[in-house]
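Example 3.2
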Amino acid sequence: MAVYDEAQEQGGMAAGVVAALAALLLLAPAALAAWPAPQKVSTGIHNRQLCPQIALDSAGNPNVVWYGSDGSTYQVYYAENTGSGWTPQKVSTTTTNNYDPQIALDSGGNPSVVWYGYDGSAWQVYYAENTGSGWTRRRYPQHHTDNSVRR
């Protein structure tokens, strides 16, 4: 007949915790070394590049969107890295501010980007997609004219 021995169980549990911590400490440097050096994605000369979003294609290549200053307004940018470096592109084409882009990739790895921007009289939702032959852009009215909502 087995007799429950709480001290033995706690001692065994403590030994297991110590072993797990020891393994973690031994493996942590290797796991940290696996991270590559950070890469600069934006190439703008202006210091306000904000709110990056990332999506990986089926090969694991990163696709990134963000908004940033072009010196006079905020624009939406996109960059991809297929192994030979980043290729930033300006996605938005308005002469007014554009903010908060989001990105998704279709099954072929083609990017779709949405954001909101001011068209001079109202805030609008914009959409752009790139299927390999350049960006196709559309605007979707939000029916919102309160300019106080701007960032």
